[in-house]
């Protein structure tokens, strides 16, 4: 399969599977336990139908929205994900450039393989730093200071990873960061020579935000689940989140909110936004899909903070349904990670281009000129 053969989410997934060794592919592709929540995240969108209007004069379409005080040209942005240079050598650099070319936001992780300083130097787009609350408070302070100095627009504290989810695919493939070439995994790396040569011939990736404080993930191989379970602070609470919000002093979000009660608490501590998310089904299997929770959360806090729907997005119509419920924007990881893994920056740009084309076409078919015209009147829920 070639990049030019990719027309949707599933095509990019095939392209990534074609290029990546098994442990790397299944790290992106997998989720927790029986992966029920992972599947439900997308299936949830099938439970509501779109009701279009016609003869609305839809020659010009405005897809822009404003989140965290920044205007973006697409109501969809690239959520922060870890270890991107493991999927393609250009990693976060490729995604940052692609996001800028499409006028949308891009997020990088605490476990990024490119630093906030380098990303700031190559991207003028709105930028989010995704923060993992570590046991090492000096590491936490360092990440806040560096993101602030690099003029990142949003700090997003991930709140659903105080312990690692049971990602059984990673256990079976032996996935670690950095990868371990073991007798059991060697064949999978040998059968993907393009990735293996690229990985071995380039400088070893680092975790620049962490490496001065911890060796795990850079010099000591560890699974992501074990990293979360051993390095992150399981005692973190609402007081800690409020102090972090105050210390940051700017646009601040919680990533991983799924209940109305927690959404209200996010408002109380000074958050300017929340990502309704279950970490792509990679943490608590059996958790509800973000789209299924969206209406209750929007009704409770949507007039006070920006509500982002994150999880299961595979089509432009999924985005339109979330926006019609009241989300300010949508975000996702796999929706661009497969494209990154398959073809680097060109892959991410093709993926974003296809989403933009879908959104423009579907908006015209809905009879809407701008996303502000979308509402729950456009929807009919199946019983």
In words, what does this structure look like?
The model has no long low-confidence stretch (mean pLDDT 95). The strands form 3 sheets. Strands 4-11-10-9-8-7-6-5 form an 8-stranded parallel sheet. By secondary structure, the protein is α/β, with parallel strands linked by helices. It has helices at 9-19, 22-29, 36-43, 91-101, 116-122, 137-149, 168-173, 186-190, 193-201, 224-231, 238-248, 260-268, 290-301, 316-325, 334-366; strands at 48-50, 65-67, 70-72, 76-78, 106-109, 127-131, 154-158, 251-257, 273-276, 306-310, 329-332, 379-381. The chain has a single domain (3-365), classed as Aldolase class I (TIM Barrel), CATH 3.20.20.70. α4 packs parallel to α15. It contains 15 helices and 12 strands.
């Amino acid at each position: 399969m070639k990049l030019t053969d990719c027309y949707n989410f599933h095509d990019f997934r095939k392209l990534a599977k074609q290029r990546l060794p098994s442990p790397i592919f299944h790290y992106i592709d997998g989720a927790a336990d029986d992966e029920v929540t992972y599947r439900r995240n997308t299936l949830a969108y099938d439970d509501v139908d779109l009701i279009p209007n016609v003869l609305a004069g839809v020659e010009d379409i405005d897809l822009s929205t404003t989140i965290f005080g920044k205007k973006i040209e697409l109501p969809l942005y690239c959520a922060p994900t870890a270890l991107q240079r493991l999927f393609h050598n250009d990693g976060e650099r490729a995604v940052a450039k692609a996001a800028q070319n499409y006028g949308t936001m891009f997020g990088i992780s605490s476990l990024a393989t490119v630093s906030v300083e380098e990303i700031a130097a190559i991207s003028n787009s709105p930028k989010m730093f995704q923060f993992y609350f570590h046991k090492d408070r000096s590491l936490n302070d360092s990440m806040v200071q560096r993101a602030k100095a690099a003029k990142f627009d949003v700090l997003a504290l991930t709140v659903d990873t105080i312990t690692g989810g049971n990602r059984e695919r990673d256990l079976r493939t032996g996935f670690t960061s950095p990868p371990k070439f073991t007798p059991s995994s060697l064949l999978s790396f040998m059968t993907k020579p393009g990735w293996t040569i690229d990985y071995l011939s380039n400088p070893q990736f680092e975790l620049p935000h962490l490496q001065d404080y911890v060796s795990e993930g850079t010099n000591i191989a560890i699974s992501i689940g074990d990293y979360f379970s051993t390095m992150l602070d399981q005692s973190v609470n609402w007081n800690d989140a409020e102090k972090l919000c105050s210390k940051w002093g700017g646009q601040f979000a919680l990533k991983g909110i799924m209940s109305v009660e927690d959404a209200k608490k996010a408002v109380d501590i000074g958050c300017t936004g929340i990502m309704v998310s279950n970490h792509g089904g990679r943490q608590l299997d059996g958790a509800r899909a973000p789209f299924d929770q969206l209406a209750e959360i929007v009704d409770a806090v949507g007039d006070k903070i920006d509500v982002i729907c994150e999880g299961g997005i595979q089509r432009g119509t999924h985005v339109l349904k979330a926006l019609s419920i009241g989300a300010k924007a949508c975000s996702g990881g796999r929706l661009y990670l497969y494209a990154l893994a398959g073809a680097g920056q060109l892959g991410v740009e093709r993926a974003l281009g296809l989403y933009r084309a879908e959104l423009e076409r579907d908006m015209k078919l809905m009879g809407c000129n701008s996303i502000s015209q979308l509402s729950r009147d456009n929807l009919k829920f199946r019983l």
